[in-house]
## 1
Amino acid sequence: MSSFAPTSTSSAGDRNAQFAQYDAPDAVYFPGIPAIPFKPDAGPNETMVYKTYNPKQIVNGRSMEDWLRYSICFWHTFRGTGADPFGFPTLIRPWDDGSDSLANAKRRMRAGFEFFSKLGVKYWAFHDRDIAPEGANLSESNKNLDVLVDLAEELQKKTGVKLLWATCNLFAHPRYMNGASTNPDVHVLAYGAAQVKKGLEIAKRLGAENFVFWGGREGYHSLLNTNVRRELDHMAAFFKMAVAYKKKIGFTGTLLIEPKPKEPTRHQYDYDAMTVIAFLKNYGLDKEFKLNIEPNHTTLAGHCYEHDVTVAAAYGLLGSIDSNTGSPDLGWDTDQFPMDIKNTTAVMKVVLEQGGIQPGGLNFDCKVRRESIELMDMFIAHIGAMDAFARGLLCAAKILAEGVITKQVAERYSSFDSGIGARVEKGEATFEELEKFVLENGEPKRISGRQEHYESMINYYV
Ligand code: XUL
Ligand code: CO
C-alpha cells in the first residue's frame, strides 16, 4: 500500500488533466472493454470471455452464480501496485495519482465498480484503509471513511453489487507493529477496538453479509519477549467485545476468522483451521464465529490445498473462502489466481456437500503478477479463475451425482455402521468390550487404502 509517483515524462499540468477526466461520475475507466460474454465454444486464445462460467446455468438445483458467489477484493486489485521488497511499482493505473487524497480514493472506487460490473461479479470485499485514507487521528480517519462509504452505498445501489465482507486493517500502520488485540500495550488494543467498532458500523450500513478478522500481526517473532497465554486471552477478550458490539448495533453478518500460519509474523496464532477451531471452542466463541479459509495460507501451513476447507466444513465452521493459490515451491504468500481444476474441484466438492457457502462466497484474494501490467490482465486473471471454479463446480457435481467415490469412501468405514463399530461411534463401547472382541475375532484382515485407485477416479472426472 505504499504510495508512488507515476512514471511519466509529461508535465504536472498534463498529469492533473489526466486524473481530472476520471473525477466525473460517468467517467469510463476501462474503455474498449465490454461486459464479459459467455462463449462456450471459444478457442484457447480467447481469454476475455467465459467459457464455462454461465451465471444462470442450473447445477444441482441452484444457479452457478449462487453456488460460487464470486467476490472481488479491493486491496489487491485496486490498491496493489506491484511493488515488492526488491522493486518499485509496476502496476500504474491511469486514474490513480498515487496520492492519499479523497479524490483519488473516489476514482479508485468508481473504477472498482465499473470493473465488478463488467465482469458480472455480484460481490466485493475491502479493508477500511483500502477504501479511505487514514487521517491524522481516529476521528479524521472515520470522517474519511464516511465520505467513501457514502459513495460505496451509492455505487452498490446503482450497480446491484453487494458487500460480501468488510474487514479492518489492523496490521499496516506502525502502531500495530507488535500486534493489535495481542499487543502488550492496551493502548494499541484500544485503538484496534475503536477501529473495529467503526468497521462493524460501516459493514452494517453497507449490508455486509460477513465481517472478517485476519490477525496480520497477531503472533510473535520471539518467545523470549512474549507471554503467549496473556496474548491469546486478550485476543479472545477482543473478539468477545466485537460480538457484543455486533449484537448491540444489530449487525447480522457472520463473523469470520481467517487462519494463516506465518507471514508477516514468524508464528501467527491463527495457524490453521484446526488451531482456530480449538481457540474458538476453548474461549466459548464457536457459536459466534466461522472460518474464512484461504488455500494459499493452508499450503503455507504445510497442508494440501483443500485441507483447511475440508477440516472447517467437517466441524460446520466453513464460512467463506479466499479462493486463491500459492506456489508451494516458493513458500510464501503469493496470492495467485487459482487456475488448477483439480484444486477447484476438491474445494467445490466440499462446498456442494455442505449445501453451499452462503452467506460466504469465493472471494478472489489474488493479485496479478507484477509483470502483468495491462488493464486487460486484471480481467483475464479473474475470468480465468472464475472459469476454473466453474469447471470445478461441474466436475464436483458430476462426482457427487454419480456417487461412485462417495459410495466407496462410505464402504471404507462400514465396519462402524453396526455392531461394535456403531457402539464406538455412539460412545457406548468400553476398552474391556473391545479387548473381548479382539480375543474372539483375532487379527484384523488387512484392507488396501487404494490411494492410486481414488487418484485415477478423480482423473476420470477432471
Ligand atoms: C493476508 C490476507 C488478507 C485477509 C484480509 O494474507 O489474506 O488480505 O484476507 O485481511
Ligand atoms: Co485472505
Note: The pocket of cobalt (II) ion (ligand 2) is lined by residues 214, 258, 294, 322, 365 (CB under 6 Å).
## 2
Amino acid sequence: MALYLDSANLDEIKEAFSWGWVSGVTTNPALLGRSEVKPEERLKAIANLVDGEIFYQLMAETQEGMYLEAHRAREILGKKLVVKIPAVAPGFRACSRLAPEFACAMTAVFSPTQALLATEAGARYVIVYFNRAASLLGEADSLTTACAQVLADGLTELMAASIKSSADAVNAVKAGALHLTLPFEVLKALPENEHTRQSIIDFHQNGKGISYTEHS
Ligand code: E4P
C-alpha cells in the first residue's frame, strides 16, 4: 500500500513530503497545465523535491509518439519516472514496447477488460478513476473490485485515482485498490477526526506527561 500526491504544485509537494508518509507524485496534463512554466521545467523541479516515483502522463496519440515521449520524459525524470499511458489501443501497444525498460501505468481505466489488457501488456500499475466512475457509471466499488480480481496474480498493482474525499479513499481500498493517489486537500485531511481532537484536548486538560526540551 502506498499513498501518492496527485499534484504538480511545488508548495503542495514540499509540504506533503515533509509528512513522511507520501511515496510519490502523480501528474497529469491538466495539473501540469496549471503551472506558469513549461512542463519540462516543472517536472525537473518536482524531481529535485521528490525522492520517489513521479508519474508523467503521455500526451502523444500514436504508439510511436508515445514511445518517443516516454524516452524524453526519462531524460527529465530519470529512474523516478513512471510512464502514465492512457488506456487506449495505441497506449496498450506502447506499454508492451516500453514495459521491458520503463515502469508503466495504464491510466483512465474504466473497465476490468482494460485492467486485464494492462497486465498482459506488462504494466506495473493500473489506475482506475474512482470518483469519475461513480459519476459516470453510477458507482465505483464494483469496477474497482473487478479490476483487483483480474490483477490477482500481483504482477500489476491497482491504484485508485480521481479520489475526492476521505470516504472515496477508504471505499477504494475496501473495494480492492492497493495504492491511492489523492489531491493535496484530501491527503491533508486524512489524519483529521473531531473525536480524536476532543480526546486529546481531554487528556491535556486532565493528565500529565514527562518533561522534554524542544531543539530549535
Ligand atoms: C490520476 O493519476 C489523475 O491525475 C487524477 O486523479 C484524475 O482524476 P480527476 O481529474 O477526476 O481528479
Note: The two ends are 34 Å apart (CA to CA).
